[in-house]
Amino acid sequence: MNFPDNLRYTKDHEWIKLDGNVATIGITDFAQRELGDIVYVEIETAGKTLSAESVFGTVEAVKTVSDLFLPVSGTITEVNAALNGAPELVNNDPYGEGWMAKMTVDSIADVEALMTAEAYSAMVS
Questions:
Q1: What is the 3-state secondary structure (H, E, C) of 17-54?
Q2: What's the mean per-residue pLDDT of the chain?
Q3: What is the mean pLDDT of residues 13-34?
Q4: The CATH number of the domain where 76 resides is what?
C-alpha cells in the first residue's frame, strides 16, 4: 500500500496535505481498499467551521457507508466537485484526483501533531 511521506494521517484513515494554512483532505489507500468500490461521496459542509474529529461528510461504497472525520479544526473552503460524477476517483487515485475537501486550518501545529506515514503504516499493518 502507498502512504506518501509528505502527508499526515489520522487514526480514522484520513490524510491531510498542508500548503501554507490551506490543507487538502482525503482518505488513505488503506481506507479505500477496505471500503471497496466507492459509489457516492457526500460532503455538504463547504463554508462551515468545524472542530477536529467532526464528521464533515460520508463516503458510500457498495457494502457500507462511512463517516469522514476532519483531521484538524478549521473551515471547509472547497469540496471536490469531480467526485459527484466520478466517485471512483477515490479508489483510483486517493492522494491525487480523489481528494475530498480543502480547508483553512486553525493551527498548523495540529497538522504536524498527526501521524507520519511511517506511524500510520505501522498502525495498519
A1: EEECCEEEEEECHHHHHHHCCEEEEECCCCCCEECCCC
A2: 97
A3: 97
A4: 2.40.50.100
